[in-house]
Each structure stands twice: as structure tokens, then as C-alpha cells.
Amino acid sequence: MLLPILAYVGGVLTILSPCILPVLPFVFARSDRPFLRNGLPMLAGMALTFAVVATLAAVGGGWAVRANQYGRVASLAVLALLGLSLLSARVAELISAPFVALGNKLTSRSGNDDGSVLSAAGLGVATGLLWAPCAGPILGLLLTGAALNGASVQTTLLLLAYAAGAATSLALALLIGGRVFALMKRSLGAGEWVRRTLGALVLAGAAAIALGLDTGVLTQVSLASTSGMEQKLIDATRPNTAARTTGKAGEPLSIEGELPSFDGATQWLNSPPLNAQSLHGKVVLVDFWTYSCINCIRALPYARGWADKYKDHGLVVVGVHAPEFAFEKEPENVIKAVKDLGIAYPVVLDNRYAIWRGFGNEYWPAHYFIDPQGHIRHHHFGAGDYKHSEDVIRLLLAEAGQNNLPGDYVKPSAQGAQAAAPSDSSRSPETYLGYGRATNFAAGPLVHDDSSTYKVPNTLQANQWALDGRWAVGEESARLDAANGRIVYRFRGRDLHLVLAPGADGKPVHFRVLLDGKAPGTDHGVDIDAQGNGTVTGQRLYQLVRQPPGGAERTFEIIFQDSGVRAYAATFG
Questions:
Q1: In 3-state terms, what secondary structure has residue 261?
Q2: Backbone angles phi, psi at 537, to 5 degrees
């Protein structure tokens, strides 16, 4: 019940966000008319349209995004006509002639006509197609959940709750604004000026959306940032994703549920298909991971160590590979990653997230501990707390009658990206380069799904990043369309990793890394040399910086000598 409430509150807070500005003129265009016949149907149409479009965009892939783009163009045309009709009675008459069915309803200005419910709802549909709220923490949580959990009634209802929250705050503003406009008409005789002003604002809003300001500049220039409030709400209603565990050392383990089915798996590696029957009598550790996730990679040495240490005592480790990016759905990529990472225990590919949904999982990595009777007895989300996790394994094995278990804890000597992260709370946050989840971008508005030229600003603040050169930014990645493009990031942390992929032709992409304008020297990561030279040869996470922990902010720069490379996300340690 908490998540729908959280979604609704997040929607209410959008009234404080700068991204709402371009659609406000559309909302107020009929503020002088009865709310129940105009404002309410318009806001309902806007909320329903946003929920449906957001659901399709999250789960439907590229076709849904392209279809929505056509809808946005049509909506811009309709709302531009509305703005022109408000500016001029003559224009309204000209427009109404060819658009009897739609345009005349939207632009009708008869003193006795308060507008039909259908025309108001139609205006709401057009507004809903254009509304692009700033992707704060709450909306980001909802969209990520929609993408992972697939199309469902719950997905749409959560997005509808978010849209309903926004409609509620807009309705209050509309009621107050309508009374103000009515007062101005009666006391100042300013009805014509109010109408023309609204027409100008509608045109300005349409122009702002057409230029991409609603998804670019306004997401960076905050009039009253809600991100802090939203994150506090999330933290209050859900656990910390860095590390969450049930129970404490020495406490008895309760039964949390039953082992869900592995049906829906797309492929098994290192093992024939497993199920609850074949695993009966075994202690099972289910590890949700994906091969470009840095915390998953850091947890793997422990999963491998436990599998080796306790395999002769009744432990079975099952890795559930649930992809975050599209390229992680390719079986060949996962097979290569499993081999490169030295994973010998069973791995199941969960490309449709069927197992993910069966567990009700929300995290990478996530560990679920199952006893020999198939009961889930413990779980842990995120990296860390490995000693307690091994204690749970030993306890469940002892309950199963296993004696003379090997002593001491697993202490892997992991190197490179698999090495444990230092405890540095000031390190830079995970940053996505696709527009779907991009934050802290400092080189102007991100142009969606089209090639554009970007330039790095003279200065970057902490945790800001920028593109330089010709890039095409998609929903989950940025693609370089001309050689010698750059990514620049002002970061803090021991490690810096980038998830990269070569171009569609698969040819290697050469690059060079600079730190504060110089070769990294001894601070180079395992995937480059001391001069900063490296090559993108596959779709994976690349460790580019490894320096002593606790250092100051530094400027990272990567120059790609070849075009076609795709950059997905940056992570730090």
C-alpha cells in the first residue's frame, strides 16, 4: 500500500518542478470555464494518457517511443492552433472551418458555450502526450519497476497514481487561477487581455516543448527542487539499497516464503534446468545479478567462494542473470561473461524477469537463502555483510545435519573490478548516460534519439558530466557518431568504471583516458595502460581508474578515436 501512496505524493510534488512550466498554459487555457465540465475532464484525460504512454514506453521498447513521438507532433499542432485562436478571433474563425470536428470544439468562444466534456478531455489527451515530468527519484523508481516487471495492471495503476497526484495539485492551482481570472474580468474588464495572454503562453509552451526545453534545460534549472524531498520519502518507505539484510547474527531465522518456480527461464548455463523438486534436500543460495553491475561483480568472488567451499556439504548456488541493459539479454554475451568471471555454478537467464517477479525482487545484487525444505529463510540486498551471509549458510547446513563444516570465512583475493569497494560515502553516484535515467548532465539539453553536437562547458561541478562531439542519446545509452568524441566527468572515488559497447559492426573502438588532463600513470584501471590507452572490444563494464581511496575530486576524460561506441553508465567505488 505504501508504494501507491508514494507515487501519488511524488505526483503532487511535480507542481514545484520546473518541468511542469511548459504544460501550465494548456491547463489554464480554459480556466475561465466551469471546472467540472472543463478543468476536471481535461486533467483526467491528461492523467490517463500519461499513465498509458509511460507504461508503453517503459515496457514496449522503441516502437512505443516512436509512436509517442508522432502523437507529440500531432498534439503540438492542435495546441498551437488553440494558442492562435486565443490570440485572435479572426484566426479562430479560420481554424474552425477545416477542423469542424476537433478544432472548432477546442477553440469555441461563444459566450453561452462553456465547452463540452469531450473537447476538454481531448485537450487533456493532447497535454498528456506532451507532458514530460522531471524524472526525480520517485518517478525513476516507478519507471524502472515498470521496465523490469513488465506490463501489468499494477504498473499502470502506479503510474496513474503518480499522474493523479500531479492532476490534484494542478486542479487546486486551476481552481484558484480560475477565480483570479474571473475577478480580473469583472473588476478590470481585462477579459480580452487575459485571453490573449493565455494564447501567447500556450504558444510559448508549445515552442518550449518543440525545442526540447521540457526535457533538457528545465530538468537542470530547478526553481524548487523536489529531489531531496522525494529521496527522503523513498528512504522512509523502503530499505537502503546499498545493503539490506534480515535478522542479526545469532537470531533464529524465520520462514519468509517458499522457493518460487524457475519456470520462465530463457536458458540455463553450467547445469540442466533446476526446480524445487531437484533442489529438495539442498541448501540453496539464489543470487540475482547482471554482468555489468559493479556491486554484482564485487559480490561474485564470495558467491564463487561459498559454492566451492560448501558444494560437498549440500550447498547449491544458483545465479539468476536478470539484465539491466538490452545487450545483457544476448545469451552469447552472458556466456562469455560467465566464462570470464570464472563462474562454474548454475546460472539461469531471466530475460523476461519471470523469476525476478516470482521472488518479488527489486535489487541487484540480491541473495535469497533457502533451506532443504524449500523455505526462504533469509535475504540480503546489495553488496557487503558477507560474514553474516556465510553464517546463515552454515546455520542452514547445520540444520540439515551437515557436520564438520570447513572453518573460517571465505576471504577472496579479488582483483580489478571484483575487488571490494572502500567505505567512502562521498564517492560519486552511479550515473546513466541514456536520457531515460540521466542526471547531472551539464552540456545543455539532451536531444532524444537524434544525432546532435555537444560541447563540454568550461567548468564542471562535483558529479556533473558532459558529452563533447557528435552523439546520439537514446533511452539507455549514448552513441558516438563521429570520431574523437569525449565524455568528461568530475568525480570522486577510488574507482571509475564505464559500461561500454562497440558499434553495430562490432569493430574495436580505441580510446584514451586522461585524469586532470594528464595520463593516469599508476592510477590506471585494469582495462587501460599507464598512458591511458584502451580498446572497447565487447559489451561489458570497463575499469578505467583505480587510485588510492580518500582522494580529492578529479576530472576524468575519455576520448574515443573511433565512432560507433555506446556508453551506458558510470559507476564508482
A1: coil
A2: -115, -15
